Amino acid sequence: MKRNMTRIVTWSLALLLISQTSFADDADLAKQLTNPVADLINFPLQYNFNDHMNPLSSGQQSYVNIQPVIPISISCDWMMISRTILPVIDATNPIPYSGERFGLSDTLQSLFFSPKKPTNGIIWGVGPALQIPTGTQELLGTGKWAAGPTLVILKMTESGWTIGALTNHLWSLGGSSGRDSMNQTFMQPFIAYTTKTAWTYTLNSESTYYWNQGDISLPLNAMISKTTKIGKQAMSFGGGIRYWVDHPDSGPRDIGYRFVVTFLFPEGKSSKA
Known about the structure:
Blueprint: H1 2-33, E1 41-53, E2 59-66, E3 69-73, E4 78-92, E5 100-104, E6 107-115, E7 123-132, E8 144-156, E9 161-175, E10 183-194, E11 199-205, E12 207-210, E13 215-230, E14 233-246, E15 253-265
Antiparallel strand pairs: 1-2, 1-15, 2-4, 3-4, 4-5, 4-6, 6-7, 7-8, 8-9, 9-10, 10-11, 10-12, 11-13, 12-13, 13-14, 14-15
């Protein structure tokens, strides 16, 4: 009887230790996900839904952002992080009475050059951003090539907090002569808290100011996500809501939604140069 009890206690302690180790590993991955320039290959698939688009509020929009993030070691001290966003859009009446539209929107390719170690506790990255006119229909893209600088800066604490901002500015370089030129600033301040059990709570905004038109698009997003493993595959699942504080006449209004599935590949970190 005593021997059986000893075995039960031993196995219980072993399972508890394994569980705590797993939580710690998941929490570390979850924290890295809050850092846009982390040394972590990840592949988010981000679904978004927006409603009440166009001046008549008769439009809806669903889109999936395909967002691979790939860090590449370029020296002993520096990394280059490639962040790509390719939207696949399904829209109804993006302008009044325009009907159903489905296809690709424009691709945004950003390259961040970031030191491997924080600078005085601050993590940062800077580089170029390039918009590629991959829109397959006129109402789904701008028809313009555009480029400009991009910057991210953040602070991460031992207690699980991450606070920072990501920004870029794009000027049009060419493309369809019949389309409006681009001159716009994107700003994404964010704050996130990750628990020891790998739950992350995030609040951010994703504002875009259109200088030529004098318009602003300003949604606030609140998200909850959980990092875990399914078999051997590390993954993160998240969801949340957004509220449109301000918008152009053609933009969405009121409440929107977001759901994200992210595949994580910690074994694929950038190799040392």
